[in-house]
Amino acid sequence: MKRLQFIFLLIVLSLLGCEETTNSLYFDKSKLVEVNCIHLNPVFLSGDANQLHKALKNYPELYENFYTRMIRAGEKDHLSNTNKIDSFTIPKLQHFLNDSSMKEIFKSIAATFNEFDDYKEKISVGMGNYSNIFNAGITHAQVGTFYSNFNATVLENDHIIWIGLDMYLGNDNEIVKMLPPNTFPNYYKQKMDKKYIISDVFFSFLMTHHFNPMGDELLARMLSYGKITYIMDKILPFESDENKFRYTKDELNWCKENEEYIWRFIIDEKLLYNKEPALVDPFFQEGPYTKSFGPDSPSTIGIWLGYEMIKDYVDNNNVDIVELMKENNIQKLLKYYEP
């Protein structure tokens, strides 16, 4: 990856613990977004189904998602029918909370995430940068933490960004180690790390609000994802390059060192304008590596390469991010790419 050019003009040491430096886009501290955090994990830890039901009722989309899909306790109408709530929903929730394994998981989450201030501050800065760049006028944002039963990293329900903290316990956590390998292979467990929380929050947010598929061809898909990751660079200058792609340093270095090889393979195999899912999808799917590039390669190489293309385009043209997002001419976007 080429070096990111966008960094803060001034970063307050007490805010992010980073050195002051200069950048080409000033972040106005007066427009810092206030983040309201909702923490549902203490309610899970309480073991009281009535409290959990009462808390989740405030977030109907999340409640339905959690109850019907994540723990598969029952149907949607169980959450609104008074008779079913008393006779079915509450007992189901209580049975779930009483499970000894669940209690250990809730304790582990509490121990791992005993404070959330650092994440809150970074989300505040990221949202402030986003609001400035898109002139969105955002002054407040809501973020929630909860237990997803190992189903969701980040999702947006009830206009709230929810973070499933169980998905970030760390691959060395004893509970994570016991997750079934057929569902959670080792490569997936390696990425269940809290260092990816901030990048996951903003990738999910941007995918929800700004992802614009430009076509089914490999090139079009790479450029579509490249726009999203390019925005992430602009709003998250304090995040490491590798975190933004859910990579390790070694994985990112492999991409940098093999960029020309990746590009040559795509050209030689005539994949650039290929739409066949069996050939195109592996460039974007999570896995132990990217098909065709061997076990030393990371997965989702298509997203990383798309970022490189978009960066080269922006570096060679006088366009801002709003203009970039409107540009859908894939040949124009590709023109300045130099692997």
Helix and strand sequence: HEHHHHHHEEEHHHHHHHHHHH
Question: Residue ranges: pLDDT <50 for 5 or more in a row?
Answer: 1-26
Distance between the termini: 10 Å
Helix coverage percent of residues? 40-55%
What Rg is obtained from the alpha carbons, in whole angstroms?
22 Å
Task: Please provide the count of β strands.
Answer: 4
Shape: globular
Number of helices: 18
Number of domain modules: 2
Strand order of the largest sheet: 1-2-4-3
Main sheet: strands, sense, barrel:
4 strands, mixed
Taken as a percent bin, the fraction of beta residues is 5-15%
- By secondary-structure content and strand pairing, the structural class works out as alpha/beta
Q: Give the rounded overall mean pLDDT.
A: 91
Summarize the structure.
The chain has 339 residues and is an alpha/beta fold.
Walkthrough of the structure:
The protein is α/β, with parallel strands linked by helices. The protein folds into two domains: 24-210, no CATH class; 212-334, no CATH class. It has 18 helices and four strands. The chain has helices spanning 13-16, 41-46, 49-56, 60-70, 82-98, 100-112, 117-134, 174-178, 186-190, 197-210, 218-235, 241-244, 249-257, 259-268, 277-280, 301-315, 321-326, 330-334, and strands spanning 34-39, 140-146, 154-157, 160-164. The chain has a four-stranded mixed sheet with strand order 1-2-4-3. Mean pLDDT is 91; it is low at 1-26.
